[in-house]
Write a structure and sequence with these properties.
Shape: globular
Domain DUF1214: 340-448
Order of helices and strands: HEEEEEEEEEEHEEHHHEEHEEEEEEEHE
Largest sheet: 6 strands, antiparallel
Domain DUF1254: 70-199
CATH topology of the largest domain: Jelly Rolls
Protein name: DUF1254 domain-containing protein
Helix content: 10-25%
Structural class: alpha+beta
Number of domains: 3
Organism: Lysobacter auxotrophicus
């Protein structure tokens, strides 16, 4: 019998470069390109901006920044005025650096943090984490090498481990837990001063130090923003140095080859025909409003966690989950992978009504039912732009870091949320809110079974 099976080396027909693409087809491919490429164009533009820093320091006095191949570090909690990223965390001391790892690998130092929680989140161009460097992984102090997918050099003696990115574009965001006490702020300084990164060519096996408390200010050009910096500009999205650059520096995942072929055919058509390029600009503008903007609402992020909260899904390891990757990139860029952190968030109270400073609320954790973690947990309040709300207490989150929280007689813990103080006897448990809309966000770092398995539920936010 003659076999009818296809040949094992079938030749795949590629898009016809001379095809005249009609308007409906252009729209279908362009919208998918916008959803798929938005997080990566975001990354391309962040690297371009942050690495303009002439030396490690603080951009505009609030954001760690450094030249390509290095990192900057804070020495305290992040400044509440920052707009580089939404949903910042005031439980840790942050660092930040962007790399081009195929040009030259980077050495990143890990001091001996002892019992303190820490993790170095390493992100590729897709916003997915690579490598495992941190307390949840049992990482030891020493020197670690960050390398790109095409680097073929020798690993020198003295390197404790190698983390290889899937793309040449990568960045690192160290997070080191800090108690909200003067004693711990003093104790953490010699540790974070050893959190330093530099090109492999500068590695000499000796621990380098930088006094981050005296890091110089780097003036930030341009106007300030009342929301997150706009890292993706729809009018420029389909330019060669934006989406075009992504197609060049981010290799396709298995199964994405056909999608890349369609995207490249679309870009080629726009390059030949200015009318198509104008159509792409219009589609990008529409897609920003109708597809990307709704991701800012927490109900479009992750999955239901009970009591009108949602929880993160496939964070920082999205693979082909373009929906959650786009959602995270829009609403809370640079989250940790699930083995490191689980996130719970809500815009509404237990009855499904929008959280607003016009009302007051309570969040009560029954005795023994606070988020089960090996690391730490916190409840953070964000304004309607997912940034901090300035307040006289300079208080933006409550949780493990706070040593003066007052518990109820039965051992439960009630946190109060609202624009008005709940009273002097409850003030230490109060998160001040703006007069307008706001959201709440629970972090559970290095979760135990109840967190990782999904059985733990956040308590309902009750209007009081």
């Amino acid at each position: 019998m003659t076999s009818t099976r296809p040949p094992t080396e079938a030749k795949l027909t590629q898009p016809d470069p001379d095809a005249v693409l009609h308007e409906g087809y252009i729209r279908a491919i362009a919208q998918m390109a916008y959803v798929w490429g938005w997080p990566m164009v975001n990354m391309v533009n962040r690297r371009a901006a942050i690495t303009q820093a002439p030396h490690p320091g603080l951009l505009d006095g609030v954001l760690p920044a450094a030249p390509r191949g290095q990192i900057g570090m804070l020495h305290n909690y992040i400044d509440p005025a920052e707009t580089f990223v939404t949903c910042p965390n005031q439980d840790v001391v942050y660092g930040l650096g962007f790399f081009s790892l195929d040009e030259e690998p980077v050495v990143i130092q890990v001091p001996d943090f002892g019992d303190r929680f820490w993790v170095y989140a390493l992100y590729d161009a897709r916003t997915n984490q690579f490598g495992e460097i941190g307390k949840p992984y049992g990482s030891k102090s020493g020197f670690y090498l960050l390398a790109g997918p095409n680097w073929k050099g020798d690993v020198p003696a003295g390197i404790a481990g190698v983390a290889r990115s899937t793309t040449e574009l990568a960045n690192a965001i160290p997070r080191v837990f800090l108690d909200d006490t003067d004693e711990d702020r003093k104790a953490i300084q010699p540790l974070i001063n050893q959190v330093v990164a530099y090109p492999l060519s500068q590695f000499d096996g000796k621990m380098k130090t930088i006094d981050w408390a005296t890091a110089p200010n780097i003036p930030k050009p341009g106007p300030k923003s009342d929301g997150e910096t706009k890292w993706v500009i729809p009018d420029k999205f389909f330019d060669k140095d934006q989406f075009g650059a992504v197609l060049q520096i981010v290799p396709p995942l298995p199964g994405e080859e056909a999608m890349y072929a369609q995207f490249r055919a679309l870009m080629a058509a726009a390059d030949k025909d200015p009318a198509i390029k104008q159509q792409l600009v219009k589609i990008a503008q529409e897609s920003e409003e109708t597809i990307i903007k709704p991701f800012f609402q927490w109900k479009h992020n992750g999955k239901a966690a009970g009591n009108n909260w949602n929880r993160s899904v496939s964070n920082a390891q999205t693979g082909l989950d373009y929906f959650n990757r786009a959602g995270t990139s829009k609403s809370n860029m640079f989250d940790n992978r699930p083995t490191e952190t689980q996130y719970f968030y809500t815009d509404v109270d237990g009855e499904g009504k929008q959280l607003s400073g016009a009302s007051s609320y309570s969040v009560t954790f029954p005795a023994g039912q606070e988020p089960p973690v090996n690391g730490f947990w916190s409840l953070t309040l964000y304004n309607d732009r997912h940034l901090f709300h300035p307040n006289e207490l300079n208080r933006y989150s409550l949780g493990t870091k706070n040593k003066n929280l007052k518990r109820n007689d039965d051992g439960s813990l009630t946190l109060y949320v609202g624009a008005k103080s709940p009273g002097d006897d409850k003030k230490q448990n109060w998160l001040p809110a703006p007069d307008g809309n706001f959201s709440l966000y629970i972090r559970a770092y290095w979760g135990k079974e109840g967190i990782t398995g999904g059985s733990w539920q956040p308590p309902a936010v009750k209007r009081t």
